[in-house]
Amino acid sequence: MGGNVEHPGTYNANHFVTVSEAMTLAGGPNRFSTPEETVIIRTSGDKGTRRIPIDYPSILNGSHPDADLPLLAGDTVYVP
Questions:
Q1: How far is CA 50 from CA 9, 21, 32, in A?
Q2: What is the residue range of 41's domain?
Q3: Which of 23, 27, 61, 68 lies most in the core, judged by the most C-beta atoms within 10 Å?
Q4: CATH number for the domain including 56?
Q5: What is the C-alpha separation between 27 and 43, in angstroms, rounded?
Q6: Number of domains making up the chain
């Protein structure tokens, strides 16, 4: 987790973790954040780096639960 979260850093898990679970591990967005502009930064050797936009408030309010994507090894969730 990076950016404007309460506890940025690297988190390891023994199971799949979704965006909302990762955000909880990091203490959630801080007061300086823009959670609706959250992105997953995913790097794959053959496809390069992708930025996957995530509207975190839509996950929380239940309007887009499908946006609560599982994270892959090496993903970074960034909250501007």
A1: 20, 21, 25
A2: 2-79
A3: 23
A4: 3.10.560.10
A5: 24
A6: 1
Secondary structure class of 15 (helix, strand, coil): coil
- Which residues, 6+ apart, have CB-to-CB distance to 8 below 8 Å? 1, 2, 26
Task: Tell me how far apart the alpha carbons of residues 30 and 36 are, in angstroms, rounded to a whole number.
Answer: 13
Q: pLDDT tier at 15 (50, 70, 90 boundaries)?
A: confident
The pLDDT confidence band at residue 52, using thresholds 50, 70 and 90, is very high
Task: Indicate the pLDDT class of residue 12, thresholds 50, 70 and 90.
Answer: confident
Q: What is the β-pairing status of strands 2-3 and 48-54?
A: unpaired
